[in-house]
Design goal:
This protein folds into five domains: about 80 residues, no CATH class; about 70 residues, no CATH class; about 60 residues, no CATH class; about 70 residues, no CATH class; about 100 residues, no CATH class. About 10% of the residues lie in helices and about 0% in strands. The chain has five helices and no strands.
Length: about 450
């Protein structure tokens, strides 16, 4: 049998089938929407909580199909998947993770998610923390090359962090971080020596001087590694410890260029002061500085010289040392008494010291007015104690300067004097002193007074 179906007939059939399908869909949706009130969605294994509880069934059950509806977040919230439809989907700039959505998000809202790092592979922090996907290094972060954040940051809160110098090559690059720009990498303190201002100094980095490693800046040794021959006072001015400055003592000279005198970079004690020609020996200018204020002055044990008249170079003839080339110049102490120096209090001065009377010196206190007599009453020269001429000071015997105090047998005083017993001549009554009536002059009649007994 031959059937002839026209185009109009076909169109009518298609329209009829469309109506049937539409009615079927509406019926299914109605069934889905009009589920029994006692239906417990929790029995499906997917509880309707949060924003899911307010959604229409067809939002998840596509085409009224209940069986096989996915229960994971990603199937409905990933762009391009069948169940995504008009749902909020993971944006292209989402953190690249394979963890389930509910590892970070809840069913209330996608915003305010708390990222769970437990599902992130170790060592891939920079994959997200690049400044676009997640917070990256701030502008004041130390300028490290691309490396694993975990090298320094040991917590997901970033703080506290500890820079691990062993994982980052920093030789000769300390200043790239330790410049004061990248906390907590501390830079130079304000009291750091101004090494960059010193002429001829080629310091390229912190570790030029700081050799103790990464644990501490101290100890640092500047002169051990850098040669400086001038401008010492740029650092040694008291403002940059531990570079000690000029001591605040009255004996340091008032100059600013340390290297004029100090010749060593390891000790201040290697001192050699260079006097200018204007202050040479013989100019009489020593006292201008060597006054105890600008430079070392006379010690307390120095012989008492007359200020103004006696200049240092009157006796001290060397600028290398006060103890070198010293010759006592008595012409500058003519206004002083011999005893003011030759008293036993200045025996350490000069080459031999200001010698005092020896213990067996003639006791001038036995002489008339002997207490007021000075050394030059008998000693005529200043180069030697020899050549002495005894000055009896017009002493008289018999108590006014007993002759026997020195001239009696057994006395041991210095000097080539005659010594005899009072009984060396027969006399009645016996003599009580060398000089009395009938004996030696000046009270007696024999010899010349004070010069000859005979």
């Amino acid at each position: 049998m031959k059937h002839d179906i026209s185009g109009a007939r076909v169109m009518a059939l298609l329209l009829r089938w469309a109506e049937v399908i539409a009615l079927a869909c509406v019926g299914m949706q109605a069934l889905a929407q009009d589920r029994p009130r006692d239906f417990d969605h929790l029995r499906t294994g997917f509880p309707l909580v949060g924003i899911h509880a307010a959604q229409r069934c067809e939002s998840c059950h596509v085409d009224g199909v209940f069986k096989g509806t996915p229960k994971d977040c990603a199937s409905c919230h990933t762009s391009g998947l069948r169940h995504a439809r008009s749902n909020t989907v993971k944006p292209p700039r989402h953190i690249p993770t394979q963890a389930n959505c509910d590892s970070c998000h809840n069913t209330q809202t996608f915003t305010g998610a708390r990222f769970n790092h437990s599902g992130v592979l170790v060592g891939v922090c920079a994959t997200c923390h690049n400044g676009m996907t997640a917070a990256g290094k701030p502008a004041n972060h130390i300028p490290v090359a691309a490396t694993n954040c975990l090298s320094c940051h040991v917590t997901t809160g970033w703080r506290p962090s500890r820079f691990n110098h062993s994982q980052v090559v920093v030789a000769n690059q300390c200043a790239s971080c330790h410049s004061g720009t990248f906390p907590p990498a501390e830079g130079r303190p304000v009291t750091h020596i101004p090494y960059q201002t010193l002429a001829g100094v080629a310091i390229t980095n912190c570790d030029t001087c700081h050799k103790a490693g990464f644990a501490a800046w101290a100890p640092a040794r500047f002169h051990s590694h850098v040669t400086v021959s001038s401008q010492c006072a740029s650092c040694h001015n008291g403002s940059f410890p531990p570079a000690v400055g000029k001591p605040n003592t009255p004996t340091h000279i008032g100059v600013t260029a340390c290297e004029i005198c100090h010749r060593s970079r390891t000790s201040w004690l290697a001192v050699q002061f260079a006097h200018s020609p204007a202050n040479a020996v013989g100019t009489g200018t020593c006292d201008n500085c060597h006054n105890g204020t600008s430079a070392r002055g006379r010690p307390a044990t120095h012989i008492p010289v007359t200020t103004g008249l006696a200049r240092c170079d009157s006796c001290h003839r060397s600028q290398a040392s006060f103890a070198t080339a010293v010759t006592m110049n008595h012409s500058v102490v003519t206004t002083s008494t011999c005893k003011s120096c030759h008293s036993g209090g200045f025996t350490t001065q000069g080459v031999t010291g200001a010698l005092a009377k020896p213990a067996n010196h003639i006791p001038e206190l036995q002489l008339l007015n002997g207490a007021s007599m000075d050394c030059n009453a008998c000693h005529a020269g200043t180069t030697s104690w020899a050549g002495v001429r005894m000055n009896h000071g017009a002493s008289l015997g018999g108590g006014a300067g007993w002759c026997k105090s020195c001239h009696a047998t057994g006395s041991n005083y210095l000097g080539a004097m005659d010594r005899n017993a009072l009984t060396h001549k027969t006399k009645t009554p016996p003599a009580i002193d060398c000089s009395e009536s009938g004996c030696h002059r000046p009270l007696g009649n024999i010899g010349a007074a004070f010069r000859s007994w005979r």
